[in-house]
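Private note to self, pasted from the team thread so I don't lose it. Backbone tokens:
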């Protein structure tokens, strides 16, 4: 019987089925017994396949640099020549705040007298860090268009019916303005300027016109860059 037990144990170990029919070995002179049916333990279930890795979410499209600029309609209320620079005008510009901003612009070669500036509406980038130009604290930048060889430079004009403080936007590219620190760190003004253009006398970013609720921004320069 010990030989039979060993045989049955080996058979159960090797079998992958759940039931096994065995016939005992016949020794000489002994009758053949009935077949033995024995239940063997089922094979252990296969380990589940590892879950498929999730694909990373698509990276959000970067906000266009111009959308992060805070460009406002402003009105020059006063202009005077910088005492220490023959290139700079010093201006006080109303952009709808409690006090007009003081801004310096290197435009004396193109606008030789103050009366050509005072009273006119312009576009002002308002979220730049304060900069000193020849010692003058300038809090913003006035946008101008120029032809390719820089021989002609003119203001970009807001729509006639727009008012100081109105934000100038590019349709389909509007976002919360960046902070002045972000503007400087990420060089957003420089990046936006690479794609600002005068196209047939219309100020555009990526060929989309800039404007306010009153209409499009224009310039006497029919084709060129804007900065």
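Design output:
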């Amino acid at each position: 019987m010990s030989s039979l037990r060993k045989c049955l144990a080996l058979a159960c170990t090797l079998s992958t089925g759940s039931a096994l029919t065995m016939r005992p070995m016949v020794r000489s002179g002994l009758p053949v017994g009935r077949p033995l049916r024995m239940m063997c333990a089922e094979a252990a279930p296969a380990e589940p396949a590892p879950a498929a890795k999730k694909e990373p979410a698509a990276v959000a499209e970067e906000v266009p640099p111009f959308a992060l600029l805070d460009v406002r309609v402003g009105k020059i209320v006063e202009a005077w020549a910088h005492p220490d620079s023959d290139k700079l005008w010093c201006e006080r510009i109303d952009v709808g705040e409690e006090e007009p901003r003081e801004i310096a612009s290197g435009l004396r070669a193109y606008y030789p007298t103050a009366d050509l500036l005072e009273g006119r509406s312009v576009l002002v980038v308002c979220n730049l860090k304060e900069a000193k130009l020849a010692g003058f604290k300038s809090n913003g930048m006035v946008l101008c268009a120029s032809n390719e060889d820089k021989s002609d430079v003119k203001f970009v004009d807001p729509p006639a019916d727009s008012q100081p403080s109105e934000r100038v936007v590019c349709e389909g590219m509007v976002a919360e303005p960046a902070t002045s620190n972000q503007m400087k760190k990420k060089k957003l003004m420089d990046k936006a300027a690479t794609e600002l253009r005068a196209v047939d006398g219309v100020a555009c970013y990526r060929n989309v016109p800039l404007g306010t609720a009153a209409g499009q921004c224009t310039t006497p320069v029919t084709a060129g860059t804007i900065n």
